[in-house]
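Thread title: Can someone regenerate the structure for this chain?

I was given the following input by a collaborator and told the matching structure tokens would be attached. They weren't. Posting the sequence so someone can regenerate them.
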Amino acid sequence: MSRVSKGRRRRGNHSLVHETNDEDEAMSSSQLPQIQQNNDETQSSVIPHISGPSSKRNVRGRYRGKEVNKLTKNGEKIEIDLAKGMKRVVGDKARMVANECENVLRSTVSLRDCITWNQVTAKYGEVMMRKMKDMFKPREGRDEVIFHGYCVMAMQKALRTWKSNLHEEYKAYATDELRLENQPDSISPEDWRWLLEYFATPQFMRDLITGELAPPDIVWEMQHARTKQGVLVWSDPQSQEIHGRIQQHVNEQAEVPVEEPRMLRDEILASVLGERSEYVRGKGYGSMTSKRKLNQTEVHSRVSSAIETARAEMRAEREAEREEDRVQMRTEIRADMRAEREVEREEDRVQMRAEIRAEMEQEIDRRIKEQLGALMATLQQGQFQASGSNNAENSPVGAQGHV
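Best answer:
Regenerated them for you:
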């Protein structure tokens, strides 16, 4: 089976269904594939391990950071420029820093341990930042906070892109065997096998904003169709026909007034696909009495309420953490600004003292010159008077007067 071009696998507005964000923290960990330890001998109990080399693909290789390694091989750090007041690297090293953020993330993080950004920062945040600061340094020490903020932003974006690209690789093949044979080179075999299980869970297909599962027509399309050269291709005509009927029900329910009851997603699927005795879609077979149904409804209601309460508490905690971060950031910015102003004041004081000293020296020189000029004039006048007196005494008239 040929691979689907990476650039043509998007499905319009359905991308929200596939992405994950911080709301993933509200999901029960028991509903996700079990996280395995990093061990080459560990095998998935659901997806078989297929040995042998992956088929070669004509794509550009992964960024390896060779230039960074060359510039830092002697323990030196690469100087970078940061935009004032913005979390942005500028200059000729900007692309290098962004690439290295992605490289550090992929070489450090195991997706089996951490699938959300909060989990990644909790376990690997300090390690990743230490790696970045060992390779790069801002030209001015006071920009360290801005560099830290940029790395966080770049790595968070790189994590979203990485998971999105891996999901595109997942959708490119119809079976797990083919997916294992065509494992992406940006992830380890163990993490890839775990992701194959994770991508198949209903929790992964939920909506990002509401936390609810995606509409049944979108889920059906994700499970039974894929894009090929920008065109949606169904696994068989029957799946396409069922999708049309499900979509019709979804559109009809969207027009039902809010105050009136609407069909649930399972009810829509049951109306299109039919029901089997004691079978619940996604949960399998099982005997269920009326009393048990009532109890299960009550339990489901309590669980839903508990989940909503937990989500609200987590949102409040995250908002409190964000507020603390904002307060800390403002405090650090104020401290930096005070330090800058103090440096500027000191420079102004030094310059002012230099100007005053220069003016005083000029004034002293002027006064000394005036005093010297006055003294010279007085001396010249005295010499002139003395010379006149001597001339009068030596003249004949003066001599006769003396006789």
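The radius of gyration is 40 Å.
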